[in-house]
């Protein structure tokens, strides 16, 4: 199933040491997670700087950059709506 994700990141949180100088520009490797649960703002996508194996093995904290929503899916669906708070 194809999906489109609409997201935004806080560029001030990017670790400058993680930027990779390439032949055609500067790059940042990121990891995008799609969660089963939708938060109170309708977001279910998290964006983090990618970690090396050593960082993962050392259980270093992920550098969270932003969030987003699933905007469209090929099966005709859209992002789930957050459930209303129950009293």
What is the secondary structure topology, with strand pairs?
Elements: E1 3-9, E2 20-22, E3 25-27, E4 30-34, E5 45-49, H1 53-57, E6 64-73
Antiparallel strand pairs: 1-6, 2-3, 4-5, 5-6
Structural features, described:
- This protein is mostly beta strands.
- It is built from 1 helix and 6 strands, in the order E-E-E-E-E-H-E.
- It has one helix at 53-57; strands at 3-9, 20-22, 25-27, 30-34, 45-49, 64-73.
- The strands form 2 sheets. A 4-stranded antiparallel sheet has the order 1-6-5-4, with no helix packed on it.
If you compute it from the alpha carbons, what radius of gyration comes out, rounded to the nearest whole angstrom?
Answer: 16 Å
General shape? globular
Describe the largest sheet. Answer: 4 strands, antiparallel
Output mean pLDDT: 90
Main-sheet strand order equals 1-6-5-4
SSE pattern: EEEEEHE
- The computed structural class is mainly beta
- Beta fraction of the residues? 35-45%
Number of strands: 6
Tell me the distance between the termini.
36 Å
Low-confidence stretches: none
Please work out how many helical segments DSSP would assign: 1
Helix content: under 10%
